[in-house]
Design goal:
The chain is mostly helical. The protein has seven helices and no strands. The protein has one domain. The longest helix has 44 residues. It comes from Haliaeetus albicilla (White-tailed sea-eagle).
């Protein structure tokens, strides 16, 4: 559990402390996720709700690995891509999905830590493996839908340039563009709120443990 706590600290720094990921934090995050996935295969690690959330958090870094490997293949072998904008957006969306899934899962871990600290008995029926798996699944579905909309917007932009002015494609593009802009703004403000909420939660936990 000490190793898992260190991993959580690393991920909190990577996604909720740093304003943006850099090469060092990304590399350390990938190593930490690989090590965590190996640890979680051990029979010594009991199946708890927190472990389920951490497992999903570690697996989210697979998206980063796919994005990096794909970019390296394109750059190393000079692969010819028919739609550079579409591919570039796809790789960026993989990183976006990873960041959003990670932030949400880390916030769920923080909420669970808060419940364990202040309502250990009353919250026991909420802190189940089943609920943790359901929460992880919902987060993945929502983020997948978000990135699908982002990718669709890129595709519609490319299609609208060659479409007639009053084509249904153009109208669909305007709708998609507006929805994408609103969703990006919502994601940005939600990220700020999650940072504030996490700081508050761990502030309360720290001083509660200190007073004891």
């Amino acid at each position: 559990m000490k190793d898992l706590r260190r991993y959580l600290v690393l991920k909190y720094i990577q996604y909720l402390v740093l304003s943006s990921s850099n090469a060092i934090s990304t590399f350390l995050g990938l190593l930490g996720s690989l090590y965590t996935i190996i640890i979680l295969q051990s029979a010594k690690v009991s199946s708890k709700s927190t472990v389920v959330l951490i497992s999903s958090l570690a697996k989210a870094d697979i998206l980063v690995s796919v994005s990096i490997v794909s970019a390296m293949v394109v750059w190393t072998f000079e692969v010819s891509i028919s739609s550079t904008a579409f591919t570039s957006a796809l790789l960026q969306n993989l990183l976006t999905a990873n960041a959003h899934v990670s932030c949400l899962l880390l916030s769920c871990v923080a909420v669970e830590a808060y419940l364990i600290t202040f309502f250990p008995t009353d919250s026991r029926h909420l802190r189940t493996v089943k609920n943790a798996r359901l929460t992880s699944r919902i987060i993945w579905i929502l983020v997948t839908a978000e990135c699908t909309l982002f990718q669709t917007d890129v595709l519609l932009k490319a299609s609208s340039t060659s479409a007639p002015t009053h084509s249904p494609w153009v109208l669909l593009f305007h709708f998609s563009s507006t929805a994408t802009a609103l969703l990006r703004s919502l994601s940005y403000f939600l990220g700020i709120l999650l940072r504030i909420a996490n700081v508050y939660i761990y502030y309360k936990i720290f001083f509660s443990v200190s007073n004891r």
